[in-house]
Amino acid sequence: MAIVSAKEMLTKASNEKYAVGAFNITSVVQMGAIIEAALGKNAPVIIQTSVTPARFLKPEVIVAVFRALAQSVSIPICLHLDHCTDVDFCKKCADVGYTNIMFDGSHLDFEENIKRTREVSDYCHNIGNITVEGELGTVSGVEDQIKVAADEAQLCDPEKSLEFIERSGIDLFGPAIGTAHGVYQTENPVIDFQRLGKIFQKLNNPDVKTPLVIHGGTGLSESTVLNLINNGGAKYNVSTNLKYILMDSTFEYMSGHPNEYDPGKLDKHVKMATKQRIEYWIDLLGSTGKAL
Ligand code: 13P
Fold it and tell me: All domains of the chain, ordered by start, with CATH?
């Protein structure tokens, strides 16, 4: 079966110094495009949903479509719940078949973040092969229901990261290092690569135990992306870019075909635009050909 644990997939990426694209979706058309692109590139891939689309489409529906599409392909693939601040909804998504869950306690104090993340970790690990992502420090910008102003964002303290991971029981770690959700307000955001490298060394020396996650993947220069991977990023999250592709390709098609009422043709156009963009990301992240 192609469906694997995110930890297994990302430990390999971390060891071999490439990153796996983790793409946020709001529609089944996007899910199909991502799987087709990854299959064509023979690349591992992670599909993720934020909480609002997961509640809107229903976790059971997302899991059913994911399984139907993912089971028939040979590449490693995961379904991840992104930035969930609600312990009960994390458990619900784990129950119905998400393979990876992120509890986002970054807005809480250190002890409370550990306590609630631990509850999610224990629950998911008891079910079986479900891995858990946690976050320390805060990523600025807007991601679904989470809004953090740039001047309120706090970077992850490398000295606290090992304690956080050991006590919270997480499998994947998203440290705040200066990347931001949404569209960057400046062309050259200040990203603390050294901090990322230090955290990587603390957690993964000599062996990779806790792969690192990069949030805020849209809008960074290609050299920044490669630098993030060199310093230990193994899961690379992209959301805003795919929202833009979805909306722009929809507007483009509709303005070019104002009298056409065939949604299938519109879906095809959006799917192709999304697929091309995913192929770009897979190549940039270095995961092309890494499915085995
Ligand atoms: P962007 O919206 O900046 O691509 O960030 C995505 C992300 O980090 C989702 O968790």
Answer: 6-285 (3.20.20.70)
Rounded Cα distance, 180 and 170, in Å: 22
pLDDT at 137: 87
pTM: 0.96
CA distance 102 to 218: 19
- The reported pLDDT for the residue numbered 65 is 97
Distance 260 CA to ligand 1 centre (A): 34
For residue 206, cis peptide bond before it (omega within 30 degrees of 0):
yes
- State the pLDDT at residue 225: 97
Residues in CB range of 286: below 8 A, 6 or more apart: 17, 18, 19, 229
Active site residue 82: yes
CB 216 less than 6 A from any atom of ligand 1: yes
What one-character-per-residue DSSP string does 64-105 give? HHHHHHHTTS-S-EEEEEEEE--HHHHHHHHHHT-SEEEE--
Strand positions, DSSP E, 197-268: 212-214, 233-238
Reduce the secondary structure of 136-179 to three states and give it as a string.
ECCCEEEECCEEECHHHCCCCCHHHHHHHHHHHCCCEEEECCCC
Q: Is the CB of 4 under 6 A from ligand 1?
A: no
Segment 145-173, tens digit of pLDDT = 778 777 777 899 999 999 999 999 999 99
